[in-house]
Each structure stands twice: as structure tokens, then as C-alpha cells.
Task: structure prediction
Amino acid sequence: MNAIALPSEGFTASPSSGFPLHLLPIGEKGSAAAPAPSLVQWTEAGSRGVPDEGAVAFAVTAESAADIAAREALLDRAMRPGRKRKSSEKLRRGRLPSAGLAFCARDESGTLIGTVRLWDVTAGDGGPAALLLGPLAVDPSIKSKGVGSALMRHAIAEAARLGHRAILLVGDAPYYARFGFDADKTGNLAMPGPFERSRFLALELQPGALDGAAGVLKASGRKARPEQLRRAA
Result:
């Protein structure tokens, strides 16, 4: 079995900080035989991935039901008041995230400081299965400390490991370009509501996964039970 340490590219593991260092075991690409452990690794990163005086120690973990209240509070702090009126929300409403693809970042005290989730969608009318990423959010007090990048890299790696073929999102193109997202394959696709065309981006985890995809994205994920919806309200 191979192993990779996440996050990569400019992030520095910090065993000297006293936190445990963990590697994420992965099988062959697309294999879901061995689920990833919750704790990826403790990391310290500065604004450019280099430890500095303001570095933050954090771990990326699988989201749990106990994180709902903290996650919603973080999203309220980090995003605009109208976040639940976005087109992306129409594809998430009443659904559960894709299995194994909801993650949190926690600081050394266990406080939730970041979140990202991916959702099952169909890319257009009768189109291929894909994932919709979002929201990605980090506590405003620790922006530009590498937390969002760590969440993104882990989410992409896990989506690939679980055999998903493409990820879509609506977001800032210059930021998401560093992870391989662009608008090349979204020209014939649309969100189920208002959206900015230049911010509708895709990453193919398998080349050609979105070839010929056209039409409006449709939710295809697991439906949430009433008690699950109440907890998230």
C-alpha cells in the first residue's frame, strides 16, 4: 500500500510541535477497499505554506454528526448572510454529502476551524455522475494560513481514491486554478439558478469524464432523513 502525506505542496509537517503525525493510506486509484482514517496529519503552515510566527497547527478529519452546530456557526461567520439562497444550495437541500466526502479542519484544542463537503450530482440531462464541491469555508480569524488549501487537497485526493470522475464548483477562478479547476468543461453546463459563468469550474479526476456533458446540474445524492435535516437547521 502506498501512502501520501496531506496536505502537500508547500505545507510542513510539524512533529516538533508535539502533535502526532499521520499518513493517509490509499490503495490503487479508485479503490474504496480501505477507508481513510479520520486524522490526516497535524500541519503548521504560514500564509505561503512556510511556517512563520503566525502559523496555525491543525488537523483535517472526517466530519461527524457532532460537528453540525459548529459547522453552521462557522459558515455564518465566514460567508454572506444569503449563503442559503445560492444556486448551489438547491443541489444540497434535503440531501446528504457524498459518502466519505465531508471534512473538517480542527485546531490543537479540537475546535472546528474549517469545513468542506462534496455532493453527488448528475452533470446535465442524462449526463455523467459528478461531485459538487462546497461550501469551502475557514474561520475568518485564520484566513491565509493554509487551512483551506489543506481541505481542498484532501477532498480531491479522497474523491479520486473513492473512484469519482469529476468535481464541479462555483468559486473564484484564480484561487481554484491552483488545484486544477478551470471553466473548459463547463461551457455547456448550468447551475439550477443564477450563477456567474466565469466562476463555474470543473476538475476532471479522469480525463474525458465530462466530455459531451450538457444541461443543468441535478442532485443525485442520498436524501436526508427528517431528523438529520432538523439537526442541520
In short: The longest strand covers residues 112-122. The chain has five helices and 14 strands. Residues 1-41 have pLDDT under 50 and may be disordered. The longest helix spans residues 147-161.
